[in-house]
Amino acid sequence: MPNRRDFLKTSAIASIGASPMLAAYGGGASASQRQKPVVVSTWRHGQPANAAAWEVLSDEGTALDAVEAGVRVTEANPETRTVGRGGYPDRTGVVTLDACVMDERGRCGSVAALEDILHPTSVARKVMEETPHVMLVGEGARDFALEQGFEKTDLLTEQSKQDWEEWKASQSDVTTPEPNVENEVGSDNHDTIGMLALDANGDLSGACTTSGTKWKMHGRVGDSPLIGAGLFVDNDVGAACATGWGEAVIRTAGSHLAVEKMRQGASPMEACRSVVERVRDLHGNPENVQVGVLALNTQGEIGAYGLQSGFEMAKYTPEGGNQLVEATPLQSSK
Ligand code: SD4
């Protein structure tokens, strides 16, 4: 007789093998989605990250431990080109990382423009747990990380260095950064991972981690480490995270907006749609950029919406296992 954990592992593998991409996710939670634990994250690299988070959740671990364990997988993977080691550098050739965490008590921690440290999410958690502050940036964040025992790591891989050199050689004016284009399916320019989890105890937490847009200006900070923009958690209501064009997410306080919509009675799906609609209204429906929003409420209901097609959500639920789902795009749903 397989135990519950074996069953979950088997169902996850079956679902990955049988259905790498499901049809557009239609929202409206069925009874089966009202289960816990649940973990959701952005893009297809969310699947291995969710698997690590699930190990924690299925062992009665906390949502906070789960999201940290989950996104660390992505941070350590040099193949993921906009998170952690192997992430694209800024236009000066330096990799700078942004990350945050938020837990069920409304506690939060964040780091931005962090250099030389492999796991910015773990540093963000230390900021939350070991300091009276929410956010540390740049040199201060790195000094703090080193004091906390994090090791110095070279984040610039040979591949990233080569890509940067090629890009630089192609620029007539390197002081003008390329605009970030986020709407290509499978593009390596939208790999930020935002992750939300609901644990067996019914508590919510989230994490968001990125190296930001490639070839960004040195010192540029996106939405990902900003509480309320890249991530927001309210244990009485739900949690949300965002990916894509960070500047647009900041302008709408996207994740906070999604959670507040849920507080007013919106489903996670409706809440995510409201955010991308707000972005569209502010920016005239830009076709060359993507914004994607994920939301998870206290009942384990999930929502995902993209401004354009191509935004993917990885979700791991007790019933469905580890699945990749293409989010509903605003463009085709009008
Ligand atoms: C940023 N939002 O720094 C991030 C990038 C991203 O998918 O999410 N890409 O703007």
Describe the structure.
Residues 1-33 have low confidence and may be disordered. The chain is globular and about 50 Å long. The chain has 334 residues and is an alpha+beta fold. Strand 7 (231-234) and strand 8 form a beta hairpin. It has a single domain (4-332), classed as Glutamine Phosphoribosylpyrophosphate, subunit 1, domain 1 (4-Layer Sandwich). It has ten helices and 13 strands. N-hydroxy-L-asparagine (SD4) is lined by residues 82, 182, 190, 192, 210, 212-213, 222-224, 243-244, 246.
Descriptors for this entry?
Glutamine Phosphoribosylpyrophosphate, subunit 1, domain 1; disordered N terminus; binds N-hydroxy-L-asparagine; alpha+beta; five-stranded mixed beta sheet; 10 helices; about 325 residues
- Number of domains in the coordinates? 1
The CATH architecture would be 4-Layer Sandwich
* Count of extended strands: 13
Instruction: Give the full name of the CATH homologous superfamily.
Output: (Glycosyl)asparaginase
Q: Order the strands across the largest sheet as they lie in space.
A: 4-3-2-6-5-1-11-12
Instruction: Enumerate the spans where pLDDT stays under 50 for 5 or more consecutive residues.
Output: 1-33
CATH level 1 name: Alpha Beta
Specify the structural class.
Answer: alpha+beta
For the CA atoms, what is the radius of gyration? 18 Å
Number of helices: 10
Shape summary: globular
Mean pLDDT: 86
* Cα distance spanning the termini: 49 Å
Order of helices and strands: HEHHEEHEHHEEEEHHHEEEEEH
